[in-house]
Every structure is written in structure tokens, then in C-alpha cells.
Amino acid sequence: MNEAPAWVDRTEYPFRSRFLEIDGRRLHYIDEGQGPILLFVHGTPDWSFGYRKVIRSLSAEYRCVALDHLGFGLSDKPQDVVYTPAFQSANLQSFIAALGLTDITLILHDFGGPIGLAYAESCPQNIHALILLNTWFWSLKGDPHFESFDRLLGNALGRYLYLNLGFSARIIMKSVFADKSHLPPSIHQQYLQALPDPQSRKGTWDYARSLLGASDWFADLWEHRDCLRSIPVRILWGGKDTAFRPKERDRLATAFPAAGVIDLPDCGHFVQEEKPDAVAAAIRDAVPAAQRAAR
Among 50, 56, 184, 281, which is least packed by CB within 10 angstroms? Predict the structure, then answer.
């Protein structure tokens, strides 16, 4: 099947669905427009739908590529893999190679941050700029905020809530919006429908356990951050995010001391949903389409 399911709102998400097979599993993605390459990498429980407003704004000037990670969105959701950020980053690298993407600007949110930055550290010469939205890429071990989350949900109860009740998309996602009017029921359904049953929600549960379970991988990522210092960076930060706090914003800024930091004090975690115009403006600032086209 190479068509999106009927529940996808084509008014909100008017893009052609494309599929790429990697290791026998299908990745869904969209590829809109022409020009400098923008690659949008989502977190949890998100999929490429979350970037739709930004892509609609930019696709007349840029080539906008957005994939759904395995286990999310319209991509396959196999049960025989563990959806760690390392696994997803390896898939991202295969995806970039398969499409022959070069001179990429990465737009990274939530878990998409470490997933995309792992690729950037392995191939810094292929990265033109980084746009970072409420994310991180260091070990969270020892942080009481995340340790308490793990104690509360990193157990059998958490597994039941994530898999059987759709806790990530149904409850957590809604709670981290500052302005709930940006997640009306019709839009929320686009996230819920992508994760309709316990089997489809394995990725969200594996991600939750990875916050601390992948601590060594995150620590290694942080250790090698200096190779990214020469890459232009913009950081957009939703100040009312209850998942990632000012503490994470400040540490992210220390990793990129030359970065432009755009604080959005009335915005929650999903910056691309609540402030898509600010994201589009930051991308245009970091990657002027006319200048790039003239090179």
C-alpha cells in the first residue's frame, strides 16, 4: 500500500505520501518543493504532520523533506525492534543516503534532537545549519526531574498506560501545550489515529524508557559535540514547556555559544504547532533561499 489512510486530513496535510523501504521496513515521508534542503525530524508521539504548517510556509522556496520514524506516523511499526534513539538515528542515516540529500539544514524537535544530532556528528560536512526546538542531547541520568518520571512510568504501570491507554499521545502531548487551542480535537485526532492500538504504540513506550535507558549513548553524543561548533545554529525555545525546562534551554545554548536563541515565553513544548511562523522565520534567517540558490 502506497497511499495514506483515509483518516489523514488532506486539508491540513496536503502532501503526497511517499514510502522508502529500509531493511525490509517501510518509512513514510513527504518531499515538497525545490531549493535548499530542509530535513524535518520529529520526536514523540509526533510524526511529519506536526511540521505541516512550517512546510506549507516554506515549500515555495525550499525542498522540505520530513520522514516518519519507524514506529510512528504512517511508517511501519514492527514489533521485533527496540525503538532506541540510536536505532532511529541509524535509520535516518540510511534515509538520507537513499535520497542523496546533501548540504542539509536539520530541523530537530524533542527526541528528533539527539537522533538528528547523532547524524550531524557523524557527517558534519553534510550539514548546512541546525534549527533546534525544545530538545536535548546529553545524559539525563541523575536529574531529579527525569528520574522521577522514570520511577513513575518506567515500570509495568507505565507500560500499561503507554500501550493500552495511549498515554503519550492522549495525555502527555496535550499537557505540554501552553495554548490548548492549538490542539483542537480535530488536530489531536491526527496524532491519536496514527497510534490506534497497543501494537502501534511500542515506539512511544520504548522512547519513554530511553530517557534514562540510553544514558550512555546520550553521554557519548554530548562528549563529541565540539565537531558541530562551526555549524550555524538557531535555538527556538517554548518557555512554558513542562517537559523540557529553562535548565535544558540553558545547557543547549552552552553547547552552541554562537547560536541565535529565540525565546518564546508563551509557547509550550510543540513549538512547530504553536509558533510555526517563528520556526519558518528562523529557518529563512539561517538559510536564505536566494543566497543558497545563487551559490
Answer: 184
Q: Which residues fall within 8 angstroms of residue 108, CB to CB, at 6 or more apart?
A: 41, 115, 116, 117, 130, 131, 132, 133, 135
**Number of independent structural domains in the chain:** 1
Classify residue 9: in a domain, yes or no: no
240 in a structural domain:
yes
Give the residue carrying C-alpha cell 501545550.
177
Which of the residues are catalytic?
110, 241, 269
For residue 188, the surrounding DSSP H or E stretch is helix 185-192
What digits encode the pLDDT tens for the residues 208-257? 999 999 999 999 999 999 999 999 999 999 999 999 999 999 999 999 99
Q: Where are the alpha helices (DSSP H) in 236-288?
A: 246-255, 271-274, 276-286
The x, y and z cell numbers of residue 159, run together, are: 507500560
pLDDT confidence tier of residue 2, bands split at 50, 70 and 90: low
CATH number at residue 290: 3.40.50.1820
Size of the chain, expressed as the number of residues it contains: 295
Single-letter amino acid, residue 84:
T
Distances (CA, A) of 132 to 102, 117, 203, 249: 19, 10, 22, 10
| Residue 232 DSSP one-character state | -
Q: Is residue 1 part of a domain?
A: no
d(Cα 124, Cα 127) in Å, to the nearest integer? 5
What three-state secondary structure class fits 220? helix
Query: 68: domain range?
Result: 18-294
| Residue 111 φ then ψ, to 5° | -60, -20
- Classify residue 234 by burial, with Cβ atoms within 10 Å: 0-12, 13-18, 19+: buried
Please report whether residue 285 resides in a domain.
Answer: yes
Residue 45: cis peptide before it, omega within 30 degrees of 0: yes
